[in-house]
Amino acid sequence: MFTEKSFVLKPTDADKKWHLIDATDKVVGRLATEIANVLRGKNNPQYTPHTDSGDFIVVVNAEKVKFTGRKLDQKIYYKHSGYVGGLKERTAREQLERRPELIIMNAVKGMLPKSSLGRKQLTKLKVFAGEKHDHAAQNPVEYKF
Questions:
Q1: Are 123 and 51 a contacting pair, CB within 8 Å?
Q2: At a CB cut-off of 8 Å and minimum separation 6, what does 136 contact?
Q3: pLDDT 10s digits, 65-123
Q4: What is the chain written as a DSSP string?
Q5: Band of the pLDDT at 1, cuts 50, 70, 90?
Q6: CA distances (Å), 132 to each of 47, 71, 74, in order?
């Protein structure tokens, strides 16, 4: 009797590409969903859930992302210093002015698995506030939605 074996992608066999995404006028949540799928490798026909088979992503113009509704003033980002009373909070508008990269990083981080694999996949995301990025040597190809 003949049985077919399941395909399992080995990490060494994964063909990782570099993608460039321009975040100008993109809605944060929808952009983060697409980025998380590419980081996990779900756009790849050889997707294997327990293997890091995703691609690298470079996001530029993070300062030009959009929020829907009244989230710019109502959404709050928290961080804690680790000390008693060290909880700091910023609205999305303040975060966009100070550290726009963290808006996309936090959105994507929430959509990845909460495990060592998810943390490894998050390291493949490079976010820049402006037009310039440090990864021209990798020749990132523009990603189409």
A1: no
A2: none
A3: 999 999 999 999 999 999 999 999 999 999 999 999 999 999 999 999 999 999 999 99
A4: ---PPPP---GGG----EEEEE-TT-BHHHHHHHHHHHHHTTTSTT--TTS----EEEEE-GGG-B--TTHHHH-EEEEE-SSTT-EEEEEHHHHHHH-HHHHHHHHHHTTS-SSHHHHHHHTTEEE-SSS--S-GGG-PEEPP-
A5: low
A6: 31, 27, 30
Residue 75 CB coordination number (10 Å): 16
With tokens 């963290």, the residue in question is 102
Tell me which architecture the domain covering 16-66+101-142 has in CATH. Answer: Alpha-Beta Complex (3.90)
Residues with Cβ within 8 Å of residue 125, at least 6 apart in sequence: 35, 39, 56, 57, 59, 104, 105, 108
**pTM higher than 0.90:** yes
d(CA 94, CA 89): 10
Record the tokens describing residue 85, joined without a space. 């009373």
- Which of 19-33, 38-52, 84-98 is least confident? 38-52
